[in-house]
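Before going further, it is useful to explain how the protein records used in this thesis are read. An example of such a record is reproduced below.

***
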Amino acid sequence: MVSSAFGTVYGEAMTFPDVDEVLARLDVLEGYHPERPEQSLYLRRMQAVTLLDSGATVPAHCYVWRGLLPAGAVLVPSGRWSPRSRR
């Protein structure tokens, strides 16, 4: 996800009994280093998200791309990434 005032990104909202343990594992996957964010690929941020089933707005941890977009990066107009949206 890229930080922007425009557009919508769709994803999955999940809860976990031990959120700190799960976040530590996701941080590794996403290349996020809490102790040195300036060296991270993504930053983890709390973001207000809207649940489609209920319309409720809740806080959620999201990973946001930290740098400039690489050459050839493609906008996904629908906000719904899939392997086919890479073509």
